[in-house]
Write a structure and sequence with these properties.
Layout: H1 18-28, H2 39-44, E1 59-60, H3 63-68, H4 75-83, E2 92-94, H5 99-112, E3 115-119, E4 138-142, E5 149-153, E6 158-162, H6 167-175, E7 179-180, H7 193-198, H8 206-209, H9 212-215, E8 216-223, E9 226-230, H10 243-246, E10 255-262, E11 264-265, E12 269-277, H11 280-292, E13 299-303, H12 305-315, H13 318-330, E14 338-346, H14 348-364, E15 368-370, H15 373-380, H16 384-393, E16 396-406, H17 410-422, E17 433-442, E18 445-455, H18 460-480, H19 496-518
Parallel strand pairs: 2-4, 3-4
Antiparallel strand pairs: 1-2, 5-6, 6-10, 7-11, 8-9, 8-10, 12-14, 12-15, 13-14, 13-17, 16-18, 17-18
The chain binds flavin-adenine dinucleotide (FAD).
Length: 535
């Protein structure tokens, strides 16, 4: 069974290794394991529901189910669950068994005056599925039973997928067709197709496959005002593209029941290579030149010196790290070398050409190919979310945030962001271990993906205040530095106060008008994307 208060399955035994622990103790001081609430304690504190169960609509008011669907995976979500301090839980959880039930559910919610929170995999890290106090009853709509592939058009490379299908389930369902949808967010194991689209995400292989907006060809959205069918035209000049409104709508417009995705043939070859580059500024130039050469890589990623050191410490393989250090020194790289990862996926011939182009540009900047690291990274790339549970139990909070900007602003924004975050907890006399990588690169710019680790406070309210302070410092710095408030995590509740600054007054009016058209009575996902007072 899925963990009720963290990532992955219940009973997962991922532990913080000695290397990571030593690094954090030396940078932040020892962590103090917090007292964690039990599921029984939290369930016992759930208030009586303001709705009746309804078997026809798979609507339950069972207290444990409501707790299990009350939160996502943001740091405030994790803190609320671990400390046992949920401000609210949904009054009921619906688990529609087929798409037509979603329509009936919306109509039922309108009749009883309830608000609806669409819940795919519940992996939102921005409060997108968080139940919050509301004067009206809340129904969380768990889409986890809407799983399957309804149609495969092999000739067009189009697959119609039910919205609750996860990445692994989709991969299994398509395997027999020789097709793949190469959208692999780090949350791949649990996130769903509907959530990919609604949160406008980006997968690890986005350089080759594209972001979800390139993969989303059409689908069906059930909205309070009606049904929107989006045909999967390969391209269209029939006015503004309504698919772009649904991408990133975060449950505000309605519930996506089915998505038509663009699939590609299974790659003939697939591989990742690791490189060490001598210094940060030169490495930024190297990856910029590489992405601008458009060589056809599937993945490109550059870690700062701090992140490179942290990855090695957390890998907890001291013998291999020593061998690696000797190897890099023998090739005359400085001690603050940085890690670059390149990936290829596709036809053998094109993959070979892409690898050759990467080699020419990276070695031209003094890069050295690292033999072992790439395999280790590939094997563990979906494991790091599990580490967050282990960090919490060891007394540390870990959060990530991300943005994107053009190349001219990448160095400045990165420096100001790390500085703002690094000093955010000074009022408490605490430090933050902060490290960054360029995660998704484009010819015109890059995303910045920042990880922050800090100590839990003895008082739960103070831990929350520490997070709020660092988040505010980071968000304000991102906006002041010209970055977008989110490159791929979405807006949710946490970024909603910063959206108006990015979109401008006319843009916000347009968004509000669209939301009102699809959802005239404001039933859908209150407080997400647009702050409540903005609707
Ligand atoms: C450890 C970790 C790693 C992550 N890595 C990545 C990454 O690499 N790339 C990335 O893009 N994101 C990443 N995320 C963020 C998150 O996983 C993505 O936003 C994901 O696409 C959300 O999918 P989900 O099914 O879990 O959606 P949920 O979390 O359930 O929902 C997200 C939002 O979409 C709405 N929604 C969900 N389903 C529907 C639907 N069918 N119709 C309408 N609205 C819906 C919800 O109401 C909510 O507002 C990560 C999160 C975690 C915890």
């Amino acid at each position: 069974m899925r963990s009720w208060n963290g990532w992955g399955e219940e009973g997962d035994a991922t532990a913080l290794g000695g290397g990571g622990r030593r690094m954090l103790e030396s940078r932040l001081g020892p962590g103090t394991p917090p007292r964690e609430a039990t599921l029984e304690e939290v369930v016992a504190s759930v208030p009586a529901p303001r709705l009746d169960p309804l078997a026809d609509l798979h609507l339950t008011t069972d207290a444990e189910t409501r707790v299990r669907r009350a939160r996502g995976q943001s740091l405030p979500d994790l803190a609320a669950l671990r400390y046992g301090r949920l401000e609210a839980v949904p009054d009921a959880v619906a688990r529609p068994a087929e798409a037509s039930e979603v329509r009936s559910l919306i109509d039922h919610a309108a009749t009883v005056g309830a608000r609806l929170i669409p819940y795919g995999g519940g992996t939102s890290v921005v409060g997108g599925v968080t139940a919050r106090p509301n004067k009206d009853p809340l129904i969380t709509v768990d889409l986890g039973a809407l799983v399957g592939v309804r149609e495969v058009d092999e000739r067009s490379g189009l697959v119609s997928v039910l919205a609750g299908t996860t990445g692994p389930a989709l991969a299994t369902l398509l395997a027999g067709h020789g097709l793949t949808v190469a959208h692999e967010p780090q949350s791949w194991e649990l996130a769903t197709v509907g959530g990919w689209v609604a949160a406008r995400g980006s997968g690890l292989k986005s350089l080759g496959a594209g972001r979800i907006e390139q993969l989303f060809a059409g689908g069906t959205l059930e909205a309070p005002a009606g049904t929107l069918v989006m045909p999967p035209h390969p391209a269209s000049a029939a006015g503004p593209d309504l698919r772009q409104l649904v991408l990133g709508s975060e449950g505000r417009l309605g519930i996506l029941t089915e998505a038509v995705l663009r699939a590609s043939p299974h790659p003939e070859v697939e591989g990742i290579a690791a490189w060490a580059l001598p210094a940060w500024p030169e490495a930024v130039d190297a990856v910029r030149q590489l992405v601008q050469a458009r060589p056809g890589l599937s993945l490109l990623r550059l870690s700062t010196p701090a992140e490179t050191r942290t990855l090695l410490a957390f890998a907890d393989k001291p013998a291999q790290t020593r061998v690696l250090g000797a190897y890099v020194r023998a090739r005359r790289l400085p001690s603050d070398w940085v890690l670059v990862l390149t990936g290829v996926a596709g036809r053998r011939r094109t993959a070979k050409a892409a690898s050759g182009e990467a080699k020419a540009i990276l070695s031209g900047h003094g890069g050295v190919r690292l033999p072992a690291l790439a395999g280790a990274w590939s094997r563990t790339r979906f494991r790091s979310p599990y580490l967050r549970n282990a960090l919490w139990s060891a007394g540390y909070a870990s959060d990530t945030l991300e943005t994107a900007t053009d190349w001219a602003h990448v160095p400045g924004l990165l420096a100001s962001l790390e500085a703002a975050i690094g000093s955010a907890l000074a009022p408490w006399g605490e430090r933050i271990h902060v490290f960054t990588h360029l995660s998704h690169l484009y010819p015109s710019g890059s995303s910045l993906y920042v990880t922050c680790i800090f100590r839990l406070a003895p008082d739960p309210d103070e831990t929350r205040a520490r997070w709020r302070t660092l988040k505010t410092a980071a968000s304000q710095t991102i906006r002041a530095g010209g970055g977008t408030i989110s490159h791929h995590h979405g807006v949710g509740v946490d970024h909603a106060p910063y959206l108006a600054d990015e979109k401008g007054p006319l843009g916000m009016d347009a968004l509000r008008a669209v939301v009102r058209t699809f959802d005239p009575d404001g039933m859908m996902n209150p407080g997400v994307l647009l702050t409540d007072d903005a609707t």
